[in-house]
Design goal:
Blueprint lengths: L2 H7 L3 E5 L3 H13 L3 E5 L2 H11 L3 E4 L8 H11 L5 E5 L4 H10 L3 E4 L5 H34 L3 E6 L4 E4 L1 H7 L3 H4 L13 H14 L1 E9 L5 E12 L5 E10 L1 H54 L3 H29 L6 E3 L1 H11 L8 E5 L7 E3 L1 H18 L7 E9 L2 E8 L39 H11 L3 E7 L3 E9 L7 H7 L9 E5 L3 H12 L6 E5 L2 H10 L4 E5 L8 H11 L5 E5 L2 H13 L3 E5 L4 H13 L1
Parallel strand pairs: 1-2, 1-3, 3-4, 4-5, 12-14, 18-19, 18-20, 20-21, 21-22
Antiparallel strand pairs: 6-7, 6-10, 8-9, 9-10, 11-13, 14-15, 15-17, 16-17
This protein binds adenosine-5'-triphosphate and magnesium ion.
Length: 644
């Protein structure tokens, strides 16, 4: 016996279960001569008892014994400790018996009497060799499995047709499929449809080139797309036949998304640039063009006064009319391209509608006007010019739609509901054909003039198609909504809904705000040039439950001066300010000497909203809100910033 085997033997205990004392004795003696420790049991029941108590490393067992026989013992031990070698030492000498015992867990079968003890020793050593091997394999299997499942990369294998064979835990976690389902599943099922052809190409390529790498997309159970970088290789069997594909992949979703975001931001910025440029050009063009049109119109009108000839008069009238159209076109174009930030002033919508009706008095001749105004309507905070322009456009459209209606009627309605102010303009005119419902807000879409194939309008009615595009733009700048219902030859109802900026917080809002930590009695500098807004904001902040002390600055200069002369705990800062310095200038000035004081930008300006995102990453005491904002959002943002 070699040194290593001998060393191993000294650490092992063998349990001998046999009902014949002489056999127990002789085997035991012999094993101890070979350095093993031994235990003995005289029947199956006792054998099991000792096994459970002493945990031997190997078991020798007879088959025919009283009480509990050898078969029972084998079954019991094998079930309990499948790695313990069991060797049958039996007087029954038949192949069937040997096979039967092997089937239930025995490792070897020796026949009695054991005359040559070296055979027994050899069998025991073989048993331990095997057990050691099994132990090592289990250890390395575990190591491999641990590694396979915990690495941060996806590891997987699939067959040559693209069906999964094995997938590590990391992959499963990301994909979200349970193991049983993923095994044998067609890999095509976990990728977006448009990616499948790419997968087929990769399969072909790998069979030819033995490997393939690149970028890929997979789809998780909940529908999210995961971007990966993969490397696949073809695996061969010992005959050199390709058997499966094994690979690893790395989740690069965050990187990809960041890149996509960057691209989108660039595109958006480019669009904004273009818009700004178009705006500038359109503005300049409109100015020159209006001058030219003015000259043409003036001359034509002058000539009209002196003309007597019917034909000439007709031509001159046409010139005046067409020049007017040109003017309205340029006006609308400029308004559309300009994309400016709305002012925020208090407006009584009922009064505003009355004003527009007066303006359009001549157009409205012969049309019955019905007003159902809610008299107690709250004041709207919005851009008066934009609201007026929107109303003119919509009422003008109604007037046009009524040009061929027998008893034309326009119903104007105002009401408020769910924190919104609604304005409805309803006519009983020609209506909008259903197939154009999606087009009416598209710039330059019109069904008037040359486009009036169904002859819905009187001949002299023309349109530029920018009216509703502008109205929608205005409404959305106020975070409002526009919608309509329409039926051909029955009429159309346009509804504008503007969010209401309330004068103070409601009881319910105060309760909700109170759920988080609330800051009170702070010194706040409110930089805001529009009185309607600073009124609301200062009222909300200085009343219960906050009781802040609020001071208002309406220009950048005053703001800077006040900041340096007083001590403030918080700055609420509008971006667009009159008089040379804007909000960003004020911010920069404050930060030169004070890095800590929390600053909340409030703005609706698009260029600003873009630049602020970067700034926020560098300055943790900075936040922003887009305008117009609700009181609750406003106070919550302030609380949040003060919490930092
Ligand atoms: N009240 C309405 N009744 C019927 N059709 C309408 C009504 N309002 C809008 N439309 C349809 O929507 C189209 C687009 O309206 P929009 O105000 O944008 O352009 P326009 O009136 O044709 O031209 P512009 O207003 O620029 O002079 C109109 O041409 C018309 O077909
Ligand atoms: Mg119009």
């Amino acid at each position: 016996m070699g040194f290593q085997r001998r060393a191993r033997a000294t650490t092992k205990t063998v349990l001998i279960i046999d009902d014949e004392l002489s056999i127990r004795k002789s085997i035991s003696m012999h094993l101890e001569d070979n350095f093993y420790k031994t235990l003995t049991a005289e029947n199956g029941r006792e054998g099991i008892e000792i096994f459970d108590r002493e945990h031997p490393d190997l078991v020798l067992v007879d088959l025919r014994m009283p009480e509990v026989d050898g078969y029972e013992v084998i079954k019991y031990i094998h079930k309990k400790s499948p790695d313990i070698p069991i060797i049958v030492v039996s007087g029954v000498n038949s192949i069937e018996t040997a096979i039967k015992t092997m089937k239930i867990g025995a490792w070897d079968f020796l026949t009695k009497p054991v005359t040559d003890h070296s055979i027994l020793i050899h069998s025991i050593e073989k048993g331990f060799d095997h057990a050691d091997l099994l132990f090592e394999k289990k250890k390395s299997d575990k190591k491999f499995n641990d590694l396979f499942n915990t690495v941060s990369d996806f590891l997987y294998s699939y067959d040559l047709n693209g069906y999964f064979l094995e997938v590590n835990q990391t992959f499963k976690n990301v994909i979200g499929y349970p193991d049983e389902i993923l095994k044998g599943v067609d890999a095509r099922k976990i990728m977006p449809k448009k990616i499948v052809p790419g997968f087929e190409r990769s399969l072909k390529k790998i069979l030819m080139e033995k490997q393939d790498q690149g970028k890929f997309q997979i789809r998780s159970v909940d529908g999210n797309v995961v971007f990966v970088e993969y490397h696949n290789i073809l695996v061969f069997d010992s005959d050199g036949k390709p058997v499966f594909i094994s690979g690893s992949a790395r989740d690069v979703t965050l990187r990809e998304l960041a890149e996509e975001e960057k691209k989108a931001a660039k595109k958006h910025a480019a669009e904004q640039d273009k818009k700004a440029l178009v705006g500038q050009i359109a503005g300049k063009l409109a100015h020159d063009f209006n001058n030219i049109l003015g000259a043409i119109m003036g001359r034509a009108q002058l000539s009209l006064l002196h003309s007597k000839d019917e034909k000439v008069i007709k031509s001159l009238q046409l010139i005046v009319e067409q020049s007017m159209r040109g003017k309205s076109l340029t006006q609308n174009l400029v308004a559309f391209a300009k994309n400016q930030e709305p002012r925020q002033e208090t407006i009584n919508v009922n009064k505003k509608i009355n004003l527009v009706i007066n303006l359009l008095e001549r157009d409205l001749e012969g049309i019955k006007i019905k007003r159902t105004f809610t008299q107690s309507i709250p004041t709207l905070i919005a851009d008066p010019g934009m609201v007026e322009h929107a109303l003119v456009n919509i009422i003008q459209n109604a007037v046009h739609a009524l040009s061929k209606t027998e008893s034309p009627k326009i119903i104007l309605k105002t009401y408020y509901f769910n924190d919104r102010i609604f304005i409805e303009v309803e006519d009983n005119g020609c209506g909008i054909p259903g197939e154009y419902f999606n087009d009416v807000y598209t710039p330059s879409f019109t069904l008037k003039g040359g486009k009036d194939i169904s002859q819905s309008y009187k001949n002299d009615i023309k349109g530029t198609g920018y009216g509703l595009a502008n109205v929608k733009n205005y409404v959305e700048k106020h975070k409002g909504k526009i919608f309509f219902e329409s039926r051909v030859d029955k009429g159309t109802k346009f509804t504008l809904a503007f969010p209401l900026i309330k004068k103070e917080l409601t009881g319910k809002e105060i309760k909700e705000v109170g759920k988080t930590t609330m800051h009170k009695e702070k010194n706040i500098l409110l930089v805001e040039d529009e009185k309607a807004i600073s009124d609301v904001q200062s009222r909300v902040l200085s009343r219960k439950p906050f009781n802040h002390k609020v001071e208002i600055a309406s220009t950048g200069h005053t703001a800077i001066k006040m900041f340096h002369e007083n001590k403030y705990d918080f700055i609420s800062l509008d971006y667009l300010l009159p008089g040379g310095l804007n909000g960003m200038d004020v911010y920069n000035n404050i930060r030169e000497t004070n890095k800590k004081v929390p600053i909340l930008f409030v703005s609706g300006n698009i260029e600003f909203l873009e630049s602020i995102e970067d700034l926020k990453k560098k300055d943790l005491n900075l936040d922003h809100l887009s305008k117009p904002c609700q009181n609750k959002d406003y106070v919550e943002s302030i609380n949040r910033l003060l919490n930092k």
